[in-house]
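dude i think i finally got it to work??
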Amino acid sequence: MAADDDTTPTDPASVIDAVAAGAARPEGEDEHDGVPGGADDEVAAWRDKLATAAISPRAKEALTESREHLDAAWHSSDAGTEAAPAGKLRHAHRAALVGMRHVTSHQVPFNRELVVAVDRLTRVVEELATRLELVDTLEERYGGILRRAQAGVATAGVQIDDLAGELAEVVAGLEDVTARLADVEADVAGQRQVLGATRAREDVVLRTLTGAAGTGTGTDTATLAAEVDRADAALLRRLAAAGRPRPETVLAWARQLEPAVAAAAAGAPVLDLDPDRGEWLDVWAGLEGPASGVESDPAAAAVLRERGHDVSDGEPVAHLAELPAGSLGAVTAVALADVRPLGELVAVVDAAVTALRPGGALVLVVADPAGAATGDVLWADPRRRPVHPDALVLLALDRGFAEAEVVGLEDGPPSLALVARTAGGAPPPA
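look at this
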């Protein structure tokens, strides 16, 4: 079969000629030479990208080899599809191509798709290599800082634990100091009381001596001592006011004890010793018989008289001892039994058992000794001392009362009341 240069050879002779012509083609000559674009330009672009990639030399070398393999694969991807140059084998070559077209027609796209796919994978690997290089750089640059920071955090944790322990010791020390300071303040308060009493004595002495020097007259020791005692008594009353129960509490105690006092008095006079603000006199004034009081504080006595009560100035114990025998129906005192010395308490019991009529009653209030440990307000009075209720009962019976009992008062700070009765008279209320 005859054919020109543009005709693909199909007969055996022409195929052989085409093969021979291809073999005789000069090395390096390509059918696509001089055509813009193509495989050479794409390979060059790959090489440029590889050269500018920020990766390590070892990774760059591996990627360069990969690009060279891709370049070779690209140039050989269409092998077997090109016609041989003019020559004795040109027709044979063309004939062979025609005979193998059903095989090579699909191989070229496959080869090129494969090359492109490998190229894409190479790009991904290149990007991963770049990122890994960046990670290595960051690790090299900041890894030491991070490790030092972690070590610093661990050290700080230990130091915080140490500081917490030291802070706990400081807190414990402060608590100890606070407790000691409270003790010191209590001591200072006691010293202030003593100092106040001493200062009052000094003031009296100075005033007395100054007056004596100005008038040229002497002052006997008894007069000076009496004035000093009055100054001390005034100071003591001011201190005792801190342990005074509230008026409504004292009034509630009077209401609770009123049936026993009314039954014992039965119309006879009732005497209240040191009535102070007069709450009990307010209640006793409503009884059948007269109610009166004797107050050791002249100022308090004057106030009670202005309110209409029969109150005289004087010392309660001495006043009670001077009353005629059997002249009273009841003797009461809300603040006397545990703020006076024991000798005065015995004197009050002795004078009362004489001054009371048959069936009369002595009513004395004392603070519950158990309240001293809990800091009840009654124990703020510096004169107060604990008096056991059994001791009160035994004292009353020993000094001549026919019967005696101690009852608990229902209102206010824990307190007790001795109710002692003389022989005779009507039976006590149930």
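The chain has 13 helices and seven strands.
im so relieved honestly
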